[in-house]
Amino acid sequence: MKNSRYPLYYILVGLLSLALCLLVGLLSGIQYAIPDFIKESLPFTVLRPLHTLFALSWIFMAAIGGIFWYIQNDKVNPVIMKWQFWIFFLTGLLIVISYLFKKFEGKEYLEFPHGFYIPILLGWILFGIYYFRVMWRHFSKWPVYYWMWGTGILLMIFHFTEAHLWILPYFRENYIQNLTMQWKSGGAYVGAWNMLVYGSSMYVMEKSSENDFYSRSKTAFFFFFLGLINVMFNWAHHVYAVPNAGWIRYAAYLVSMTEWIILLRIIYLWKKNLSNEKKIFYSSSYSFMMLSELWIFINLFLAILLSIPAFNLFTHGTHITVAHSMGTIIGINTTILLSSICFILDKIRKISNQTKRYIVVGTKIFNLSFICFFITLLVMGVERSKWIYFSENILFSQFYDGNKHLHILFGISGLGLLLGMYIIIYQLIQFIIRIILKRSTPD
């Protein structure tokens, strides 16, 4: 498998998905500010699920490609990996076509016709089969990131199935059960992919420092089990308003997002002990990991506020929730995955200094734009909450027109975010294509 191109194919498709996610996100932002913009051909009802689809495709394909590369094993036939790639790729393509033709059927974030559940589930099962075939011999000696990847795969299979229980009349015909299951599966779904992403960060930190203290420490395993608890209960802060058992709310409040505290400490210790030589060699990977540390801290503070029931009442469903989601997906998951990709590319063929300089420029533009983007979302969320709860006799059209300046700032910062990230994506894609074209060993 060391000579297989397929891990790079996964990463390449992931980066292309990220590029499309940012483009569709920008179009959505423009349409939010200018409602008639491409409304007939690509209305917001199409752009939003496309944006979500490309975001999830980026996370999954980049994480899976990285894991495949990290567990490379020449003794295991990679045919399962190839089948999974083509199942995911073709299914994703068909879902895009379905959205463009306005064929919707599922729940929020998974709006595609539920028939696509079967091939996606099959792809995850194939991933699980390959992973455990490679890793089972060393089961008793697994460092924490192997546990995170293994449980992440199993949880993805379970919670993706759970997200489609609405198909059954028992859930579909009971509103409270249906709504609770929707948010429960959605929140746990995020927790499952965090296992894959955070496991990748642990792997990169260990291998770049050549020190296995982090992945075998009690703190790391405590973080792992705390992450499992979050998968089980963290979703509940989304349904404070739903009439469920009180203990669910209390449990959600106690465990909400606490794993980031541990991850922040682990990254801090890794940064502190990483030699200057390693920082220079893995400079791109190191920079992105440090950027994720910044956004973990920012999003941690926001997450703690969102988990407080009184605060949650005023923020749920506003742009503050969107800011939290963007902080997680872009600020944390994306920077960790970019760190993982840069680490892999440096291992295959050292990234040139010129490419690194372009990546640094793109990173600076991205980070400044994203900070502005994030703050604008928070302000928009506060304004919307004030309008909902504290304004009287103000029509939505009046409220909307009064916030035009925020919409413009949102669009400008979104454009800067796209520009900075596109510089990074272009450099990485160009580098990956050169590697693929120069490798002559057959798959």
Outline the low-pLDDT stretches.
none
The largest pleated sheet is described as: none
The CATH class label of the domain at 275-443 is Mainly Alpha
CATH topology of the domain at 275-443: Cytochrome C Oxidase, Chain A
Architecture (CATH level 2) name of the domain at 275-443: Up-down Bundle
Which features characterize this protein?
single chain, 443 residues, mainly alpha, Cytochrome C Oxidase, Chain A, 18 helices, 78% helix, globular
What's the short version?
The protein has helices spanning 6-33, 44-70, 79-100, 117-135, 144-162, 169-172, 175-209, 213-216, 218-233, 246-255, 259-273, 276-281, 283-306, 309-315, 319-348, 353-390, 396-401, 404-438. It is an all-alpha fold. The relative contact order is 0.10.
How would you describe what is shown here?
- This protein starts with 5 loop residues before the first helix and ends in a 5-residue tail after the last helix.
- Helix 2 (44-70) packs antiparallel against helix 3 (79-100) and helix 13 (283-306) runs parallel beside helix 16.
- It has 18 helices and no strands.
- The chain is 78% helix and 0% strand.
- It has 443 residues and is mainly α.
- The chain has a domain at 275-443: Cytochrome c oxidase-like, subunit I domain (Cytochrome C Oxidase, Chain A, Up-down Bundle), CATH 1.20.210.
Task: Write the SSE topology.
Elements: H1 6-33, H2 44-70, H3 79-100, H4 117-135, H5 144-162, H6 169-172, H7 175-209, H8 213-216, H9 218-233, H10 246-255, H11 259-273, H12 276-281, H13 283-306, H14 309-315, H15 319-348, H16 353-390, H17 396-401, H18 404-438
